[in-house]
Amino acid sequence: MLLHRPVELLGMLLAGLLVPLKQAAKVEGVLERRVAVVGSSVLLLGPLNITHIHSVQWEHLNGTTFHTILQYERHNLTVHVPYAARVHLHASNGSLLLEDLRESDRGIYRVTVNQEERASLMILLDVLKPVSHPQLWSSGLVAKASGEVLCEVAEGRADTFTWKKDGQRLPPDRSYRLSESISVLYLRMAKKSDCGSYSCNASNGISWQETSLNITVAGLSPPLQDVLRISVVAVVFAAVSGWGIIFPVCQSEKLRIRGELWRWLSAYTCGLVCISSILTGTAGLLWMREEGPSIAVILPEIFLLYVIVITFLVASTVAFQPTKLTQLKSTTAQRTLGYAAPGGVLLVVLTSSFHMKNIHQRHEEGCTAFVDVTTLVVSTAAVLALPLLAIFLCYHTTQGWLQECDSGCTHKESSFEMSLPISKDSDLTC
Ligand SMILES: *[C@@H]1O[C@H](CO)[C@@H](O)[C@H](O)[C@H]1NC(C)=O
Ligand SMILES: *[C@@H]1O[C@H](CO)[C@@H](O)[C@H](O)[C@H]1NC(C)=O
Ligand SMILES: *[C@@H]1O[C@H](CO)[C@@H](O)[C@H](O)[C@H]1NC(C)=O
Ligand SMILES: *[C@@H]1O[C@H](CO)[C@@H](O)[C@H](O)[C@H]1NC(C)=O
Ligand SMILES: *[C@@H]1O[C@H](CO)[C@@H](O)[C@H](O)[C@H]1NC(C)=O
Ligand SMILES: *[C@@H]1O[C@H](CO)[C@@H](O)[C@H](O)[C@H]1NC(C)=O
Residue 221, SS3? Predict the structure, then answer.
């Protein structure tokens, strides 16, 4: 009777079977610990030094109460129904053979011989499935942010998880148990040195399995990758418009592109500068949303806004109301317009270079490959160059015709220039 209370306490501890059985096994002298695989058989030994056995009772602690498995009394054996086909008693020494083990057979077994308290014995039985191969995966790890590497076993209960990085055992306090089957390795501030091969060893009393995974830490979060792509596209826009600005300047005075073609070239170039400024401005805003505001980003944003407004006005005016431009008398206004596009290109290139330098620095804090922007650059450049090519093709076909009637068509040429007198001003490319 003395034994009943601690046993029931123990049973409550084991209820739900979540408490590591090792803890229970610490109660030495009372318990012997046995581990067996699901489906196998286990021989639970009776008390050793009993010479004459006339009665045996085996019980299983299920939850908080003992359930009788079998009773043996003067050659009269009674086996309780759920166990009928699975138990075999060695009447000579009181040992019990339990076959076809199930996970529900876990728990404490008690044997009482000759109805004597003195001759009773308790055995702690753990029935385990072999652990399956753990699955390892990580949350998207980004430099300077916290992240996790998770290890999960789908089958079988793992008692312990051990983590290794590049073959070195990691201290147990680096990881925690999320549930019975998941262990989480926590990375507080992911950095380059966290990259490497991680392995997780899930084990229980009867088996262990280990899985490895190469973990990389990305230097750039997805928004910063977008900043990079936008900046690169902005530079391509600026480069193509720069070409459109330089090309007419490099031509000799006589062969200079003029008339309708000049108008479209100017409108297109100015439009490109406007869009590239918008893109660069967007990249700056996205950067600040991720990294917080800084004066080095805000200042160019203000100039970019200025360039966006000017180039938009010029591009739309040149495209749709070319006569309006002739009304611009003041030379400062003309200068402003003339410098807006080249200045805008320069500003875009400088600002984007600054963004890309910052992004490259961030990228260096991780260990992934740099974002591949080749396709983006090539395809953007190809699409943007098409209208320019069309304009130049037109220019070259009409050039021959213009040269032929150079003397005869002077009045026609001057009428072109009348509508666009500023085309004489090489400064005013836009
Ligand atoms: C054997 O045990 C059962 C129940 O415990 C009882 O009904 C039966 O009379 C017993 N038989 C003998 C021979 O003792
Ligand atoms: C009891 O008997 C069985 C079968 O005879 C034997 O396998 C087992 O080892 C014995 N147990 C003890 C404690 O002697
Ligand atoms: C206790 O026994 C009942 C029926 O015998 C079974 O349904 C239940 O799963 C058992 N509980 C434990 C914890 O083994
Ligand atoms: C077995 O015998 C030893 C001494 O030989 C004794 O101390 C022990 O209590 C006995 N065990 C049981 C379960 O009777
Ligand atoms: C995994 O853990 C188990 C139990 O701790 C151990 O026996 C085994 O050697 C470990 N495996 C490796 C590869 O370290
Ligand atoms: C991890 O990377 C190394 C080389 O960097 C390679 O040899 C190894 O096979 C990789 N391991 C896994 C699990 O991908």
Answer: coil
The pLDDT of residue 417 is: 37
- What range does the domain containing 173 cover? 135-215
| Residue 429, domain member (yes or no) | no
What end-to-end distance do the CA atoms of the chain give, in Å?
Answer: 103
Q: How far is the CA of 17 from the centre of ligand 3 (A)?
A: 12
Examine the domain organization and report whether 260 and 398 are in the same domain: yes
Residue pair 156/128 in contact (Cβ under 8 Å)? The answer is yes
Is 64 part of a structural domain of the chain?
Answer: yes
Residue 48 lies in a domain: yes
What is each CA distance from 18 to 24, 157, 176, in whole angstroms?
Answer: 11, 10, 16
The predicted pLDDT at position 291 comes to 87
323 and 259, same structural domain? Answer: yes
Tokens of 82: 């759920």
Q: How far is the CA of 73 from the centre of ligand 3 (A)?
A: 26
Please tell me the predicted confidence (pLDDT) of residue 5: 47
For residues 181 and 304, membership in a common domain is answered with no
Domain count, the chain: 3
For the chain, which ranges sit under pLDDT 70?
1-30, 253-256, 258, 325-326, 328-330, 333, 400-430
Report the residue among 45, 96, 113, 121 best suited for mutation to probe ligand 2: largest number of ligand atoms under 8 A from its CB.
Answer: 45
Place of tokens 């602690």: 61
Is residue 223 a contact partner of residue 285, using CB atoms and an 8 Å limit?
no
DSSP one-letter code for 242: H
| Whether residue 82 is found in the same domain as residue 230 | no
Question: Does any domain span residue 257?
Answer: yes
CA of 98 to the centre of ligand 1 (A): 23
Pocket test for ligand 6, best of 136, 137, 197 (most atoms within 8 A of CB): 197
